[in-house]
Structures are given as structure tokens and as C-alpha cells.
Design a protein that fits this description.
Blueprint: H1 51-58, E1 72-74, E2 92-94, H2 96-104, H3 110-130
Antiparallel strand pairs: 1-2
The structure holds zinc ion.
Length: 143
């Protein structure tokens, strides 16, 4: 028969609880409009996420290294707030590796990343347009 001579309590580290009031401008509003790329009119200020456009983009090779599709849709970092995706017309097709390098690993400094992504997005828009695949209900991007 097994008996335990000692019962060891797991040691819990004490973590001090800090209550910091969240400034009003940092609080996320409970409800924010999501542009779903549908046929409804899209507000000017809200970043458009057009499913059709994003699909076309995924069918293109990686804009960074040319890896054949399907690609991932990479949202540009436009100084967007956390959790808010930038406009889909600023996105570009990327293979898993490039999407990771630029979006997750952030191998480029912020400023450089923006320049690179702006260029990728510009080329992407041009490609989609020249292929005649620009969705009818998606407003053109003013260059
Ligand atoms: Zn790539």
C-alpha cells in the first residue's frame, strides 16, 4: 500500500494586482461597424474588407517572392489600431513565409514595412485591374 509521507502544496507565486484605470480614448467601443464588402453602401472612413477582392488577391502569386498561389491575404500595417484591419485595397498576396516575416516577425522597421507594403498593394491593385477582376461594387483606390 502506498502512503504519502508528505503532501506538498504547490507553491503559488504572489502576483500583485494592479488596478489601472483605462483612459477613455483607449477603451474599445463595444460595437463597431464591420464592413463586410457586401452590396450595401460602405462608409468612407471604414476600412473595406471585400471578400471578392481578397479572393482574387489570394489567387495571385506571392508579391514578395513569387511563390505560386494560393496565397494568403496580407493586410498592410497602416498604423491601424489593434484589431482593426486596414482596407483590403491596401492588401497584397503573400506566401505563408512572407506573411509571417512581414506581418508577424516584423523583420522590417515600421517605416520600411509601410513603404514595402504600399508598393506591394499598388502592384496588386494594378494586377487585379489589368486582369479585369476588379469587383464591380468595390470603389477604385485613388492612387
Ligand atoms: Zn513569399
Amino acid at each position: 500500500m502506498l502512503t504519502r509521507s508528505t503532501f506538498r502544496k504547490p507553491k503559488l507565486e504572489r502576483v500583485p494586482t494592479v488596478h489601472t484605470p483605462v483612459p477613455a480614448h483607449l477603451r474599445r467601443s463595444a460595437s463597431f461597424a464591420r464592413a463586410d464588402g457586401g452590396s450595401e453602401a460602405v462608409e468612407k472612413e471604414s476600412p473595406i474588407q471585400h471578400a471578392g477582392y481578397m479572393n482574387v488577391v489570394r489567387s495571385l502569386p506571392c508579391e514578395r517572392c513569387g511563390h505560386p498561389p494560393r496565397s494568403q491575404f496580407c493586410h498592410s500595417d497602416e498604423g491601424k489600431g489593434t484589431g482593426i484591419k486596414s482596407d483590403c485595397r491596401l492588401g497584397w498576396p503573400g506566401c505563408a513565409q512572407c506573411h509571417h516575416d512581414i506581418g508577424t516577425a516584423r523583420i522590417y522597421p515600421k517605416e520600411q514595412r509601410r513603404q514595402i507594403e504600399a508598393e506591394y498593394a499598388r502592384r496588386t491593385r494594378h494586377k487585379v485591374e489589368s486582369m479585369g477582376l476588379w469587383p464591380k461594387n468595390l470603389p477604385r483606390w485613388s492612387e
